[in-house]
Amino acid sequence: MRIDLRELGRRAGAMQELDRTVPAPPDWRVELIGVPAGAEAHLRLRLESVMEGVLVTGDAEVPVAGSCARCLEPFEDTLELGIQELYAYAGSTTEATSEEDEVRRIDGDFLDLEPLLRDTVVLNLPLAPVCTEDCAGLCVDCGQRLDDLPADHTHEVVDARWAGLASKFASSSGAPGETPPTKEN
Ligand SMILES: [Zn+2]
Ligand SMILES: [Zn+2]
Predict the structure, then answer these.
(1) Once rounded to an integer, what is the mean pLDDT over residues 71-78?
(2) Ligand 2 center to residue 96 CA distance, Å?
(3) Would you say 146 and 153 are in contact if contact means Cβ atoms under 8 Å apart?
(4) Closest ligand to residue 157's CA
(5) Is 121 in contact with 82 (CB distance < 8 Å)?
């Protein structure tokens, strides 16, 4: 995602609009959620030539797919990410007074958007994504999604029923469908 800056030029105040759809690389992800590789990321950016370099502002819209941290259900969503970043010219004061990893740099006539996009996406991906804000998670007893179960789902009731059935079977002679253990002679 290298942007050719020759069209923009170095005159302070010059501007260029960028409206582009790009395929997501495979590393826009964290453990439970990420942008599917090859999915379309939509960029609406403005490049503005300033004294020290090029200011990139705008937003990126990226589709994400993940698993809910509470109920493990897969889900999809779209993230809208704001972008504002200065790329410094080689030899500018900003470049001279910043550490290597503090400022993004312009490489000759080009500006590489990819590291900026990756950082922006990854820093905005939730570490504990949820399928819905009020997802109730899983039942600790049976592991089913609580949102899929009736509101009165509890295991005391179920256990009591099973206990009743169990005692009924125990008192009858042999379970149905089973041959009673008898010995021939
Ligand atoms: Zn969930
Ligand atoms: Zn349960």
Answers:
(1) 96
(2) 61
(3) yes
(4) 2
(5) no
